[in-house]
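S.,

Sequence below, as promised.
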Amino acid sequence: MQTCRLFVPSPMNIGEDIHLADEQSHYLRHVMRVQCGNPVILFNGEGGEYEATIHRPGKSETVCHIEQFIPADREMPCKAHMIQAACRSEKIETILQKGTELGAASFQIVRTERSTLRLAGSKLERRLNRWKKIIIEAAEQSGRTRIPSLNWRDSLKDIHFTGQSYAMHPLTAQTWAQARNRIAQAEVIDFVIGPEGGFSEGDLNTLATMKCSTLTFGPRIMRTETAAPALLAAIYAIQQSPKSG
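The prediction came back faster than expected:
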């Protein structure tokens, strides 16, 4: 049976006990059926992971004893930040789940002129909590040692760019092949992905004033929920062998 892997957002030290929260205890006891002495992998998002042993499984609390630290590193060669135009919530959930599995460093969900999703106040807070849970579960499942951050932006002007920045758009002179070498050597890169209806002229003008280049990924137009996973897979491939092709 595969060893259970859990995110615990607290400091950890070899030889210490960690007390898991109610939801994680319920998962270990009733879903994974763990018993005293069973192994478990814990990570806190600061890099690496910890091998631990179930010390006291319980209904409301489980105690794990930390045995050793493993300096695992399964992150992308570069920090790839996904800036996704707000779209239907189920599509955002797919983007966050698959994007986390494929190595995204962070996500920003941003309102654009053609975005269909409108969130504010307590509704936004509840949705962000749900999305963060999806990211954590994807990180646990995929072996990530860091948790991608998640932020909501009310407009494109609120975006935080950190490196090379590209807005994905089919009607542009710059192709993926032309930008490939720059992307292959990037340490930090940002991709802005439009909503179901695509970017408006106003969106593109705003991005241009922010020094964000447009880029086409190929001859076909992808659904908004397809773009981020496809980009992440492509970045990983070319950064593993940047001199090929």
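The chain has two domains: 4-70, 79-240.

Coffee later?
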